[in-house]
Specification:
This protein is mainly beta and 202 residues long. Helices cover 12% and strands 42% of the residues. It has three helices and eleven strands; from the N terminus they run ααββββββββαβββ.
């Protein structure tokens, strides 16, 4: 499940293909039982679903802040799931960018922005063909990278992902962003996560 959660978070950052294909100080962000955003600098996150949602993000840390492209992204996370997750897993992203005091929702262009993915399991299969070994660090920590994901608790210690010099659209470069990620299966919401972060491209 953490494999899916991590993939969703990276896709929310629009960095899914880059990350799945240097040393920075770790920013630890942990959420208590409250509904407030956990925040360090410009980065924040919260679970936004119904308290009955079976999948809950327990902790998440990201460094550096802002995220730099190209560069190294250090991520640690913990996820708990009371229910197995199987295909099709529908993911709806709502991506907003700050423009002065306003937040503008970005459209879905070339699978970037506020997009709906009918089955993230298919995306994972395209990134990591079935039958191949899961990439590091997922392999080391026994985190699956394909559907279905069994119920349970999964943890990824602080791990580095290389973000290559990818060409992002002009409207997705430097700035402050908010992302809402909702995951469902057959109309049933399984998870909802909100992220706030800054991107800095060179």
């Amino acid at each position: 499940m953490l494999g899916a959660g991590l993939a969703l978070a990276l896709c929310a950052l629009q960095l899914c293909p880059a990350a799945l294909g240097g040393s920075h100080p770790q920013l630890l962000v942990e959420r208590s039982g409250s509904r407030r955003l956990s925040k360090v600098g410009g980065f924040a996150w919260e679970n936004c679903g119904d308290r009955r949602d079976p999948v809950v993000l327990q902790s998440l840390s990201v460094a550096p802040d802002p995220i730099s492209i190209p560069g190294s992204l250090r991520v640690s996370a913990a996820v708990s799931s009371s229910k197995a997750m199987a295909s099709p897993l529908k993911v709806v992203l709502v991506v907003e960018k700050a423009l002065g005091d306003l937040w503008i929702q970005l459209p879905c262009i070339d699978q970037l922005g506020s997009c709906t993915y009918d089955d993230v399991c298919t995306i994972l299969d395209n990134l990591i063909p079935p039958g191949t070994t899961c990439p590091e660090p997922l392999l080391t920590y026994g985190i699956p990278c394909h559907c279905p994901f069994k119920a349970g608790s999964y943890s990824l210690p602080a791990s580095d992902f290389i973000l290559p010099d990818v060409e992002l659209p002009a409207w997705m470069t430097n700035g402050n962003y908010r992302v809402r990620v909702a995951v469902s299966n057959g109309g049933e919401e399984l998870a909802c996560i909100k992220l706030a972060f800054s991107l800095q491209s060179q």
